[in-house]
């Protein structure tokens, strides 16, 4: 009996111990979650603090250091981006509008004495975007304020921005890699034949090449012709802008890429010396030497850690945007950004959803305080249905007799042009790739590959069309004819809509389509 009581007491004690331990651990867990939560909100508060005195030095420089791809709209979820920033993950995208706004505001800000460009984190940008930012940097220089570009090395897009500076400082082990523009794609016809996969393709027009990768083993002559024209136009514009900014000859820039090996041999294999001799950079300086030069741009420029006094474009915008006078909400211009692939339904930022983008346009239509709408387009196209859904909402806005302006970014092609065509005015950069008025479709079937594996699809249907979209069966002539006629009708509709919207004849549009 005594042993039983002792055992019960022991079990009770153990139970009390483990319950206490669990409560303690659970309390620690909850406390940890609270710490993380408050820490997260604390970081958010710090990030979005608008205390101007803490953010902008009385005499300093504005640092423009874009990271990732230069875009018109950030993609993905904002909370995920914030958490990625807290974790120290590399920034994948930078808003073009933020950089332009920062440079434009700094131009008349007495506290900003100079502009420092550090583009080495830039991984890609359409030429039209670089031109917009470059134009703003040139305007900044016209005020007499200094612009310095720094970097360990420069790629083609990075160098375009650097070329807008008064001086370019590069590391003695760096290089300027221009390279030009190219477009190389993988072609899968032979691979698909070996895999016994049939891609059924319906397309209208000789220059509608977007489905060629599944129907050919190489680029068609029509696609080569069209691609050579627009790539050549981009490269000519790039050379003209860079040569003009650096005081170079157009032919010299072409030779720098075409005769790179010969020039490098003449420089003893030293890529940095090659760039210096060719006038692409002004001085070769180590990072420490660059810091010393930057310290001399403005007075009292030393931080405790020995860096030059500067403010990033993010900090600068957070500090000054709330100080700006905002337009009357009863007389505002709405801006809707349509960036990415055009897809059906609701899509996250970075893609254009037929429903989600239409909702934004409808909100502007229903807001009587909105006096005009600007649609910023950066898209190579996508779903014809989603494109037309968006176009209908834009036409509904125009029916209220308020102006609609389309601002084209780097690309506004195919579906990107579909959503643009009805605008009262269309503004495009001289290097915007637009048009591509075409339509096509494809549907893969795997009956031959399944047959090789010994798998056979068989059955019955109540109509001639029933089961003809089974990927395990060959598409029948009726379904093939339906697809072909539907695609042809879509093209005819596209041509007709463009002709009506732009006050041109159908034949005129068909010739350039």
Automatic annotation (TrEMBL):
Keywords: Hydrolase, Membrane, Protease, Serine protease, Transmembrane, Transmembrane helix. The keyword Transmembrane helix applies. InterPro entries: ClpP/crotonase-like_dom_sf, Pept_S49_pIV, Peptidase_S49, S49_SppA_67K_type_N, S49_SppA_C. One of its GO terms (cellular component) is membrane. One of its GO terms (molecular function) is serine-type peptidase activity. Residues 140-295, 397-513 form the Peptidase S49 domain. The chain crosses the membrane at residues 31-49. The keyword Membrane applies. One of its GO terms (biological process) is signal peptide processing. Belongs to the peptidase S49 family. This is Peptidase S49 domain-containing protein. It comes from marine metagenome.
């Amino acid at each position: 009996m005594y042993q039983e009581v002792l055992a019960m007491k022991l079990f009770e004690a153990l139970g009390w111990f483990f319950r206490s331990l669990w409560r303690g651990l659970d309390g620690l867990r909850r406390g940890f979650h609270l710490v993380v939560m408050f820490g997260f909100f604390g970081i958010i508060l710090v990030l979005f603090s608008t205390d101007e005195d803490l953010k902008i030095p009385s005499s300093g420089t504005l640092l423009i250091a874009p990271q990732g791809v230069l875009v018109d709209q950030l993609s993905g979820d904002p909370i995920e981006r914030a958490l990625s920033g807290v974790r120290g993950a590399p920034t994948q995208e930078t808003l073009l509008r933020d950089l332009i706004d920062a440079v434009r505001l700094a131009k008349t800000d007495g506290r900003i004495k100079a502009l420092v460009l550090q583009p080495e984190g830039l991984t890609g940008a359409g030429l039209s975007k670089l031109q917009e930012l470059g134009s703003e940097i040139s305007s900044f220089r016209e005020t007499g304020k200094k612009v310095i570009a720094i970097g360990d090395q420069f790629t083609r897009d990075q160098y375009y921005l650097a070329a807008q500076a008064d001086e370019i400082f590069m590391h003695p082990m760096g290089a300027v890699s221009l390279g030009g523009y190219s477009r190389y794609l993988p072609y899968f016809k032979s691979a698909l034949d070996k895999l016994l996969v049939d891609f059924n393709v319906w397309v209208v027009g000789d220059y509608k090449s977007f489905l060629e990768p599944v129907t050919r083993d190489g680029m068609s002559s029509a696609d080569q012709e069209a691609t050579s024209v627009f790539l050549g136009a981009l490269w000519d514009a790039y050379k003209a802008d860079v040569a003009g900014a650096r005081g170079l000859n157009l032919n010299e820039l072409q030779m720098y890429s075409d005769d790179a090996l010969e020039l490098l041999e003449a420089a003893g294999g030293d890529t940095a010396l090659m760039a210096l001799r060719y006038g692409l950079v002004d001085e070769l300086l180590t990072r420490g030497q660059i810091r010393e030069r930057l310290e001399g741009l403005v007075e009292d420029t030393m931080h405790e850690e020995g860096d030059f006094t500067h403010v990033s474009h993010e900090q600068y915008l957070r500090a000054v945007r709330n100080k700006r006078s905002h337009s009357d909400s009863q007389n505002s211009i709405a801006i809707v950004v349509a960036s990415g692939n055009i897809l059906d339904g609701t899509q996250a930022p970075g893609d254009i959803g037929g429903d989600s983008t239409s909702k934004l346009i409808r909100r502007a239509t229903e807001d009587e305080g909105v006096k005009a709408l600007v649609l910023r387009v950066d898209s190579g196209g996508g779903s014809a249905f989603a494109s037309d859904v968006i176009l209908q909402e834009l036409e509904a806005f125009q029916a209220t007799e308020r102006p609609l302006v389309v601002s084209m970014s780097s690309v506004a092609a195919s579906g990107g042009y579909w959503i643009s065509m009805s605008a009262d005015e269309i503004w495009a950069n001289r290097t915007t790739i637009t048009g591509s008025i075409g339509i096509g479709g494809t549907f893969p079937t795997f009956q031959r590959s399944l047959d090789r594996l010994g798998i056979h699809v068989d059955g019955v249907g109540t109509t001639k069309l029933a089961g003809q979209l089974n990927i395990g069966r060959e598409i029948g002539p009726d379904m093939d004819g339906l697809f072909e006629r539907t695609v042809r009708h879509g093209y005819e509709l596209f041509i007709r809509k463009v002709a009506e919207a732009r006050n041109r004849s159908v034949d005129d549009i068909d010739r350039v389509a």
